[in-house]
Amino acid sequence: MFLKGRLRGILPNNGILIRDGNEGVGLPARGRIFASAQAPISQPSLSITYGTGSSPPGPAASSPVDGAVVDTTTPVLAVAKVTDPDGDPVRYWFRGTPTPDAETGARVIDSGWITPGDANFPGCPATGSTCAYTVPAGPLHDGVTYSWHGWSYDGSTDWVAGAVRSLNRPGIRGHS
């Protein structure tokens, strides 16, 4: 009724009041008033910020090393785990394409988000300093150069990419 009265112009609109679910718990009162009739110069306004916090750093590729030759069609790609500045858990994604940026073109390596400790990804344990992903058989072909990188994400901020590395079948070369 209170809001309807304000919207219909029956009650005066003196500003905005925001209350949280625990407004009756503790002191001071948890509601916040923004602008009001007592501040005629300032018009009421509201700014909402979400996805706050700091992004984790991009994961550094740890293997294969730059220029390495690996003669397998199922290479293990590894990144150094990163720590989120806000303490949020970090997930990882491995992506690779036949283009130098590791993003455009056919995504022949595309792991999906990996949570450390997930039993489906034994190369990325809950503890330890490395998260590894084994490329499944099939997408990498001899004589083609691929680029790959790892992404990190804390669930609330932007995804962050690590440096791109090159893969070459039958060998794998990387560059930072």
Task: Give a structural overview.
- The chain has two domains: 1-49, no CATH class; 56-176, Immunoglobulin-like (Sandwich).
- The protein contains one helix and ten strands; from the N terminus they run H-E-E-E-E-E-E-E-E-E-E.
- The protein has one helix at 2-7, and strands spanning 16-18, 32-34, 61-63, 76-80, 91-97, 109-110, 130-134, 145-153, 160-161, 165-168.
In summary, what is this structure?
The protein has 176 residues and is mainly beta. The chain has one helix and ten strands; from the N terminus they run H-E-E-E-E-E-E-E-E-E-E. The chain has two domains: 1-49, no CATH class; 56-176, Immunoglobulins (Immunoglobulin-like, Sandwich).
Q: What do we call the CATH homologous superfamily of the largest domain?
A: Immunoglobulins
* Extended strand count: 10
Could you name the CATH class of the largest domain?
A: Mainly Beta
Element string (H = helix, E = strand): HEEEEEEEEEE
The percent range for strand residues is: 15-25%
| Count, helices | 1
For the report, how would you describe the main beta sheet?
5 strands, antiparallel
What is the overall pLDDT average? 76
Helical fraction: under 10%
Note poorly predicted spans.
Answer: 26-31, 171-176
Taken together, the total number of domains comes to 2
**Termini Cα gap:** 62 Å
